[in-house]
Specification:
Elements: E1 8-21, H1 30-37, E2 46-59, H2 70-85, E3 88-89, H3 90-93, H4 104-118, E4 124-130, E5 136-139
Parallel strand pairs: 1-3
Antiparallel strand pairs: 1-2, 2-4, 4-5
Active site: 40, 87, 131
EC number: 4.2.3.12
GO molecular function: 6-pyruvoyltetrahydropterin synthase activity; metal ion binding
Length: 147
């Protein structure tokens, strides 16, 4: 590859936020919710220290040597993740979750959608949400076809 060829790279940055939630679906009875979600359906909720890794991709700029300025990515993540989610009750403080069960999968979709509004089009590659050290969700904006 010649020095003038475009080089693609992925750049990741992580943040950690604390939030509480209750896994509960309005479309299920209390008994069905308890059976499905178990102790995570506790009416008083429970909390997590979530770790989020955001990965962007693009060409390495020949002048700056960067895919994206990390300071800009940090600011986007502050606005899209930390401000709406940190130290919040997801179900009560975040309007998105008033009708969406606050699973880690849906937290990842929420973060993806927020970042998509801020980042240049086509740059966002992956959102990885660690609910615990054992439970991780990866979302890449993929959707299924509605039949």
């Amino acid at each position: 590859m010649s020095p003038r060829s475009a080089r693609l790279a992925r750049l990741s940055r992580s943040v950690t936020f604390s939030a509480c939630h209750r896994l509960h679906s309005k479309s299920l009875s209390d008994e069905e919710n308890l059976k499905l979600f178990g102790k995570c359906n506790n009416p008083n909720g429970h909390g997590h220290n979530y770790k989020v890794i955001v990965t962007v991709r693009g060409e390495i700029d020949p002048v700056s040597g960067m895919v994206m300025n990390l300071t800009d990515l940090k600011e986007y993540m502050q606005e899209a993740i930390m401000e709406p989610l940190d130290h919040k009750n997801l179900d009560k403080d975040v309007p998105y979750f008033s009708d969406v069960v606050s699973t880690t999968e849906n937290v990842a979709v929420f973060i993806w959608d927020n970042l998509q509004k801020l980042l240049p089009q086509g740059v966002l590659y992956k959102v990885e949400v660690h609910e615990t050290e054992q439970n991780v969700v990866v979302y890449k904006g993929e959707q299924t076809i509605v039949k």
